[in-house]
Amino acid sequence: MLKIKKIFNNNVVLVIDAKGLERILIGRGLAFNKKIGQIVDEAKIEKIFVVDSPNVTDRFVQLIEEVPVNRLELVTLIIKNAEVELQKNFDGNTYIGLADHINYAVNRFRKGERIRNALLLEIKKFYPKEYNAGISALKQITYYEGIELNEDEAGFIALHFINGGLNNDTAQTLLTTEMLQKIVLIVEDRLNIELDTDSLNYVRFVTHLKFFIQRVIINEPRRETVPEMFDQVLRFYPKATQSVEIIRNYLQGKLDCQIYPEEEMYLILHVQRLIK
Asked: Which of 37, 150, 154, 198 has the most CB within a 10 Å radius?
């Protein structure tokens, strides 16, 4: 039994369940002709979010004020389909972030503005499932909004799916953060440089590492092939190679995994960009 505590609009309500926990419900016509204290029709519920902090409720209020109702319904559909496609559950923060992004992307497109996704290649290579879910989202946006966003936007949407999955496990996020900090220190120490955390190459490097750590933690299969360029990369970039040897040993020890030549080569190329 879900009792209405607050009505945001006809499609979004804050309720209290039988255990006294607050939840935000989304569904077409959920609050139509309803009042506070009444019970919602559970058949109309399309998405349920647990409210784990007042901040989530505040952000929903702000979102509802800024994003058209039809676009919120579109995002609900995109999230539901992505959960089936990726076999993940996304929380309220992921919904809010994605709704805000899609609303901004649609408005930007209609103004003739385009933004390039500098991480698109990395996203496509290391998170193909999330990227494909992003492509599916673009098709839904085309159907409901009548516009065709490019694959850069599929990459941006995929990032919300990736980060949503990462954030579902706090311990995993903490481990990833700890390892990223250690690796950055290794690079700075070995190369005697201070990394520019605002630079695109830094963002690419950290994103690449985050994707790699995530793949190892969830035990995704990795290829053992040796790329044709591997020997050339080792020879051309000796300083970057030495740094990556230390990073490789650290990652293998921390994650109890094997880093194969393909992954090592990409790490070397990323570190080389940081040197430049």
From this structure: 154
Residue type, 168: N
Give me the mean pLDDT over the 52-61 stretch. Answer: 78
| Residues β-bridged to residue 48 | 25
**What number does CATH give the domain 3-59?**
2.30.24.10
The whole-angstrom separation of Cα 58 and Cα 63 is 9
pLDDT for 135: 97
Give ∠ CA 97-149-60 in degrees, rounded to 5: 20
**Residue 163 banded pLDDT, cuts 50, 70, 90:** confident
Element (H, E) at 272: helix 261-275
Cα distance between residue 153 and residue 139, in whole Å: 11
Q: What pLDDT is attached to residue 219?
A: 62
Best CA proximity match to 60, nearest among 28, 31, 92, 91: 92
Distance, in Å, from the CA atom of 195 to the CA atom of 76, rounded to the nearest integer, reads 39
Coil, helix or strand at residue 58: helix
- Residue 123: what pLDDT? 81
CATH code of the domain occupying 170-275 = 1.10.1790.10
Q: What residue spans define the domains of the chain?
A: 3-59, 69-167, 170-275
- Token pair listed for 206: 């950290």
How would CATH label the architecture of 69-167?
Answer: Orthogonal Bundle (1.10)
Pick from 12, 105, 111, 16: nearest CA to 63: 12
Q: Where are the beta strands (DSSP E) in the chain?
A: 3-9, 12-16, 22-26, 47-50
Question: What average pLDDT does the segment 28-37 reach?
Answer: 90
